[in-house]
Amino acid sequence: MKEKIYTIPIQDAFAAGCECPVCAMYQKLEENAINYTIGPGASYMEEDIREQTDGQGFCRKHFRDLYTYPNKMGLALILKTHMDKTIRELEKAAEAPLPSPNSMFKKQVKPSSPVIDYVEGLERECFVCGYIRQTFESYLRTIFYLYEREEEFRQQFAQSKGFCTSHYKDLFCLAPKYLNKKFLEPFLRELNGSYLENFKRVRDDVEWFICKNDYRYQDEPWKNARDALQRALTKTGSIIIPEEET
User: Fold this and answer.
1) Rounded to an integer, what distance in angstroms lies between the CA atom of residue 30 and that of residue 39?
2) Is residue 81 within 8 Å of 54, Cβ to Cβ?
3) Cα 52 from Cα 125, distance rounded (Å)
4) For residues 162 and 193, what is the distance between their CA atoms, to the nearest angstrom?
5) Model confidence pLDDT, tens digit, residues 7-29
6) What is the DSSP string of 24-67?
7) Which residues contact 215 (CB under 8 A, 6 or more apart)?
8) Cβ-based neighbour number of residue 11 at 10 Å
9) Roughly how many angstroms between the first and final C-alpha of the chain, as a whole number?
């Protein structure tokens, strides 16, 4: 299969043999995004980047990822100016008239307030998620590009261990947009078959894991069930558990 710079991450993920190659791609992008945000390149020291992190903040997961990264001073600087921005914006928002109580005779509606609007805006935004999003979408497009042009990749796709439920949905939704008529139906049939067959395989491993924790099966072999929970979390929740946590 011909390799180009933009196809290497996709080919590497499918060659890795994990329960969802798309999760593997996303995880690598996430690691790169955290490293870009707070790593040796010190992007957080650049004025335009700090302006974005101040305004957008981070989702819960990526706040935790930043905390576990070995650069506590960098995180402190990011948090300080983000909190400064939040204080300024909420002080202004708090000057607006306060919401009125709902009347018992009227339909209950969510209060309207600049305070609520600002906090909900923060909850929707995450600098790391935004950094990942554009590249991740191009990765998904490249899957369809390779499927149309590379027989070897089509075989690799067919032989994969399937996908998590979320990325199965993503591929199913995007296929009509990016695949031509010749390849669309075979792709969707293969995607459906691969997802369901492998989802059932992992479900069966979870079932055997349960059995192995019953004294009646203690002398039976583990088969493929020792890491069934980790693989089931990938299939159902798009979560890849690091080996050191298994």
Assistant:
1) 13
2) yes
3) 10
4) 9
5) 999 999 999 999 999 999 999 99
6) HHHHHHHHHHHHHHHSTT-GGGSHHHHHHHHHH---HHHHHHHH
7) none
8) 20
9) 34
Render pLDDT for 75-117 as a digit per residue (tens, 0 to 9).
Answer: 999 999 999 999 999 999 999 888 877 655 556 566 678 999 9
Question: Which residue type does 47 have?
Answer: E
Q: What is the pTM of this model?
A: 0.85
Distance CA(22)–CA(229), nearest Å, equals 19
Distance separating alpha carbons of residues 73 and 45, to the nearest angstrom: 12
Which residue reads 């043999």 in tokens? 17
- Tally helices (H) and strands (E) across the chain: 11, 0
Cα–Cα distance measured from residue 184 to residue 182, given in angstroms and rounded to the nearest whole number: 6
Q: Is the dihedral of CA 29, 171, 237, 210 positive or negative?
A: negative
Q: Which two tokens stand for residue 54?
A: 């101040």
Q: Which helix (H) or strand (E) is 145 found in, with range?
A: helix 127-149
Q: How many CB atoms lie within 10 A of CB 140?
A: 19
Pairwise CA distance, residues 32 & 23, whole Å: 14
* Per-residue pLDDT tens over the stretch 110-151: 667 899 999 999 999 999 999 999 899 999 999 999 999 999
- Give the whole-angstrom CA distance, residue 164 versus residue 231: 10
How many alpha carbons lie under 13 Å from residue 83 in its C-beta half-sphere?
Answer: 6
Q: State the amino acid at position 2 in one-letter form.
A: K
